[in-house]
Amino acid sequence: MAGQPNQKAENEMPSAGADNTDAVDFEIIELFFFAYRDFTSDPDVILEKRGFGRAHHRVLHFVDREPGMTVANLLDTLRITKQSLARVLKQLIDSGYIHQVAGPEDRRQRMLYTTKEGKTLARALAEPQSRRIAEAMEKTGPGARELVKRFLAGMKNAGDN
Hints:
By secondary structure, the protein is mainly α. It has helices at residues 7-12, 26-49, 54-65, 71-78, 82-94, 116-140, 144-155; strands at residues 69-70, 98-102, 110-114. A hairpin with a 7-residue loop joins strand 2 (98-102) and strand 3. Helix 3 (54-65) crosses helix 5 (82-94).
């Protein structure tokens, strides 16, 4: 059935501890897909009303979480091109969600801050995601948060912070 994990693939999938090195963990791949789809669905609705997309969400999130973040640091964090960031950042600045100031020592450096409206939007985008995470953690049981953090940290590329 479309939109649901493939039950046949689940039943034929070797366990994680199996010695089959050719195994592809379709069950986890599909769960990631559906979790990401649902995790982003609530913010997508909010963003769409403003003519924004997920790139705007990512920029707003990281700038709000690290006030004064430089454009260079944001590029490193998001791993996107200057051209891609320039378009999204311009829209967020022009819409009054992000404010850009020159660096104190190097005037060429651009430091980014969310405005009051930007903070409000960042919070509105994060709240439904936070609720979804809290509900899943509660269903998972004691110790889930630390286990999930270790798992997700292990999924990141080596050398990432």
